[in-house]
Design brief:
The chain contains 1 helix and 11 strands; from the N terminus they run E-E-E-H-E-E-E-E-E-E-E-E. It is mainly beta and about 120 residues long. The longest helix has 4 residues, at about 25.
């Protein structure tokens, strides 16, 4: 129901855009969030967008990351600029259910930032 793509190997300071395409029904269920999980670490929410268009970012990531969507394409994006080695992780997109829990998950896309 969710298909994430766009990951890859990028040098520090570079940019990457992740995409997450959902079926029409899944896309409109609830807020969409981008999460990431680095090796040996817990998964964390990076950015989220509510159906209203309101956005949330984790800490200072707002300065480098932007979440946006194309409703007609049922696709959400995470634009990552000025990436750093600590951004290396598997990135997942997910959609919340009506109870506010991220229930629907994509398969993850690997982002590796070299120094």
């Amino acid at each position: 129901q969710l298909q994430a793509s766009g990951g890859g190997l990028v040098q520090a300071g570079g940019s990457l855009r992740l995409s997450c395409t959902a079926s029409g029904r899944t896309f409109s269920i609830g807020p969409m969030g981008w999460h990431r999980q680095a090796p040996g670490q817990e998964r964390e929410l990076v950015a989220a967008m509510h159906n209203s268009g309101d956005t949330y970012y984790r800490g200072s990531l707002k300065r480098r990351f932007t979440i946006f969507r194309d409703i007609a394409k049922h696709t959400a994006y995470l634009q990552m600029n000025n990436v750093r080695p600590e951004d290396t992780a598997v990135y997942y997109c997910a959609v919340q259910n009506m109870y506010g829990y991220y229930e629907y998950w994509g398969q993850g896309t690997q982002v590796t930032v070299s120094s």
